[in-house]
Amino acid sequence: MIGNTVLDALSRSQTFRDAVSYGIHNEEVHIGCIKYRNEYELNGESAIKIDDIQSLTCNELYGYDVGQEPILPICEAGENENEEPYVSFSVAPDTDSYEMPSWQEGLIHEIIHHVTGASDPSGDSNIELGPTEILARRVAQELGWSVPDFKGYAEPEREAHLRLRNLNALRQAAMRHEKNERAFFERLGTISDRYEASPDFTEYSAVSNIGYGFIQQHDFPGVAIDENLQDVNQIQLYHGAPYIFTFGDVDRHN
């Protein structure tokens, strides 16, 4: 769903295209250089004590409320040890879910960090959203994504919304693969170990048996970008179902 979201924003949002163009021409991060992660970490405040992500079950995700979830997504725009940009974000919720527009807006938020160099307000700011979130919300408005309104970046209501969104997204992703529950959490554990997808989303393959690793290559449509392009209008888009990882049934994705 990462690829679909980027494709949609590049196709239909002038604000996002302007942000991408800014990155190209002002020595910020080129969108063609960004890689993507679904990285999770154990929640030290959770009542669930697990050794690793691989040992989780779907039932455990539904047994606890926000604040008690056993794992949390790392949502950030960062750089790896080679100073290469990446975006880490939660797994995608169901496409028709209440959480999806907020998830898409949040993903765009992290990408805008990279391509514009804009930052967020201080962690205790309850009175301003900051330039990155304002731009991301403008993109959401242009694309018709309905997201809740908040006054401040660190407003408690906003933070509670994001926590619930991320928990429900994980629940929905797990339930989409309930017949492959063990494989799902093993896959999530592997991906959480800083595994990155390229900007054109061709590095994640369908896995019929998680024990054999990444075995079957699929072309994950997304954004085919030459990082040397100097014109945002030259970015080539192509259609399909770009998802961060899949299992044997290729019509059921995350």
Features:
single chain; 254 residues; 3-stranded mixed sheet; 7 helices
Work out the helix count: 7
Main beta-sheet strand count, sense and barrel state: 3 strands, mixed
Strand tally is: 9
Strand content: 5-15%
- Taking the alpha carbons of the first and last residues, their distance comes to 7 Å
Low-confidence stretches: 200-224, 237-254
Shape: globular
Q: Which class do the helix and strand fractions yield?
A: alpha/beta
What string, H for helix and E for strand, traces the elements in order?
A: HHEEHEEEHHHHEEEE
Order of strands, widest sheet: 1-5-4
Description:
By secondary structure, the protein is of the alpha/beta class. 36% of the residues lie in helices and 10% in strands. It is built from 7 helices and 9 strands; from the N terminus they run H-H-E-E-H-E-E-E-H-H-H-H-E-E-E-E. The strands form 4 sheets. A 3-stranded mixed beta sheet has the order 1-5-4. Helix 2 runs parallel beside helix 4, helix 4 packs across helix 5 and helix 4 packs across helix 6. The longest helix is centred in the middle third of the chain and has 21 residues. The chain starts with a helix and ends in a 7-residue tail after the last strand.
